[in-house]
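EI: anyone free to look at a 1021-residue chain?
SC: sure, send it
EI:
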Amino acid sequence: TGRALNSSHVVCLDVRAASANEEEDVKVATGWVDGSVRVFSIEPKEMARFASSSFGSGSDDAERNGLVHSLLFGDNSNFMGNNNEEFACKEPLVLNGHGSSPVQMVVFDKDSGSVGRLASGGADGVVILWDVIAETGLFRLLGHRGPVTGITFLRPSGSYVSGVDGLVTSGSDGLVKVWDLNGQCCVQTLTGHRGSVGCLDCSILRRPGGGGVEDRGKAKWRLVTGCADGQVRVWSVEHLKPESDAKKTQTETSESNDAAAADDNQPNDGDDDEVFRYVGSLQPPASLNMTSSNNEGVASVHFHPSGRYVGVCRANDRAIEIYAARSEVEVQKKRRRRLRRRREKQNLAASASEKAPSKKRGLLDDPESEDDNDGDAAKEGSSILQSSPDAVQAMDEFEFRGVIRAAHKIRGFAFAPFGERGGGIRIVVASATNALEVHSLPKPSKQAPGVPVTAERVSALDMYGHPTGIRSVSLSSEDAMACTVSKSVVKIWNVDNRSCLRSLIAAAPTSSGSKSSASYYCLCSAFLPGNTHVVLGTREGHLIIIDVASGDIVYTEENAHDGAIWSLDLYPPSSGNTMSLVTGSADKLVKYWTLESQDDSQHPMVEHDRSLQMSDDVMCVRFSHSTDAEKRLLFVACLDSTIKVFFNDSLKFFLSLYGHKLPVLAFDSSSDDIILASGGADKSIKIWGLDFGDTHRTLYGHEDSITDLRFVKRTHYFFTCSKDKTVRYWDGDRFQQILLMRGHASEVNCLAVSSNGAFVLSGGMDRQVRVWERTKDIVFPNEERERELEEMFDKVDGARREENTADALMNAEKDGEEGLDADEEDNDQPQSAAAVKKSVLSVSSGDRIMEAVEMADKESKEIASYRKLQEERGGDDRRAPNPMLFGMEPPGYVLWILRSVKPVDLEQSLLVLPLNHVERLMHYLIINLKRHKGVELCAKASVFLIKAHQAQIVANRTMMTPLRELQNLVRKRTTGIRDTIGFNLAAMRMVARIADEKKNDRLNYEEKSMKDIWGELGKIS
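SC: here you go
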């Protein structure tokens, strides 16, 4: 699974945990940048094993830092050094419906009445509703003109008294849409947001102390939306009721209606069909200097699982605002106080206007302007939406509880599902430095209940991620450890189990008595002989040596260069010489360093040996792989786009390789020193011959600058990485590309190839270190080239579709139709469609079904002819099974092929079939239904085929008789399955009831006296 998912990266995720039923699997839904939704399942026993491993008494680094398991590792992985094969990571459920558009949001329906519903939103503005249990898509909702930024379920069936089974979505087009999932249509569009709506969340508002609203059967729902204008708007959900309930409410007494109206305190001045009504916005106290009109906008909004707290995080900010719901008594008290202050202000303003002298108006003055009400108008005019001042406002229901401040900018946060002792809450924060922080917000003290409290950080998980982009990756001589470098952080990894061994800050104290330290910006790294130390080159021109065992900086050569050290390389000693190190810097110098032991310890140190002056800045330096010291060469790439070759022993000039149009950024020579491959900022790869310096071939494939290049030892194969987010595998003899590996979300900076070529490490600016493993699969370059062309054509088609949509919108604007009005007036435009689009997998599955039908027809004809021939001869009419059909009969083989198609792609695969194949497929479906085989699948396929080809089937008279037979069979078989399932459910309920009664009888043994117990022991029946 880890290898299969290494071609993409996760954009979003959501978790549905088991609530009451402990035997239910935990579902983890993930949205990927390739447009797919993958759902992982974790069994309860596996979750219990995770909990025992994380809270156990072990001394493993993973347990100390909180990482328990990774879902992307399969059962053959040795993750965290666990050789126990008891855990087998299941293959995830893959749902493809968004095409090539990245999935922006995935949200489970966490209501117990609707199990298995999942909603996903893509960058193309499409929302798809999935049935995870049936492994298929239900339908897609069309309406947003930009990427979907938020999804939440509203009033799911089976929870509270409600009128609609709804879904609320937000998009970057500035609209919030309310969907009726039963009718598959939009019932309300919330407008008034100034800019894109970045997030939303909806929950039942529960008051402190429990009970209250929920006990009266009337749940208060609140929707919170965050917009790019910095406003956090709150919407109340009206209690719509079905028509049957509306007739009953007409007969209710006026007292109950008055009580309900007093409870809501919300006048119904608008349309009765509206689901949401605006009640105000959340604003932090002015004393905190956190203005709600932040230009960065709101990044995320979340309700606490209890429904009593709301968290607001703004973009590019380090703080999270926490609001708490007030009790019903406090809400009414706050409302009355606000109305009293409002009346006092109005009275003061009226008295001031009476005492003020009348102002003479000029000819150019507006006779209806009122300058005295500018203050109130400015406050109310900050938002397009306005609510009734007499109704309950958002700040009446919520009070500001406190601020959570993180050490770095926040990317997202989530509330912990459990509470702390004393009424506090915990929040998990994901920072921009690739770290997780856990903060605790205590409950306010009884002496000052309304004073905001201060949160404190409880713990942090920062060991498993780089805070910034990775600049260098290097492997030890045994390929057991890897060193990755990013800005001022150095991490040592165990390659086998992908665990982080050491994480340290590359910094040194500014002075002996000062605690502050100056960090170094590391650019290159390499393991020293023995794999016990790592040498680093920094942008400040220093050379640093780190001890791997202790993680300490044991030696620093300050000002080794006057400029940034862009590259360094080691070469083994020859004939008793010591190990040497060469560095290339922006100060136009190439320096040789000798490794020696320090006098007071066994740690190594470096001493300057000699220097080589260059005409331009040095970008990269490498040694050749020759074991003969006299034949060893030194390659130096300069800023003048040339590669100069020198003899290592005498530093005598040998060759000058020129041909690149832009500076060379990376190069490497083969193990036999026959060829040299180089890549630069001109996006080209040149292969040079080291005998005469001639250019063998120039290869093109990367779309941006090539940042690193590495040969596989003892071969002429090499890997390259580029700023175009790809890693490519090349053949240096045939001059062709072998593999294209995608997966990084940003530019790739560095590579490291193992000594036997079994795996490759790549690091990039997305702060990821990806491991690419060599498999036993055979690679055909022609097929890889065709696949790359198909992806290119898909991109072109997608761009063309986007252009057509943009042109349509521009034409609508030219015709004088506004976007919103056009959507409301154009009722002919569908709001929902099929969930799954046509893809390469669905087309190939359709081809397999057609091939299976043709093979089944051919086999049926051969069986009929064979039986006819045997009847004439008087022999046995039994024919040997066909190995091409795996020994199955034709109807069974067709059913087997249908079962091999994923449920998600079944409908699109059936649409590929022509009408004559549809007729033959229905024939085999009828035979399977008669034999009671695959009833559910056959019924589903037959119903869909009839719906899709209704017009052609009605026009074709020959299909009437099979259709009648199919109708009777489908009804009869499905009714039988339904009766069987109902009988089994009733039996299981009865067994559960009997077991519960026996359990209760067994627990009531304490009511009996000891005499009765001893007396019953003697009774033997």
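EI: The two ends are 60 Å apart (CA to CA).
SC: 👍
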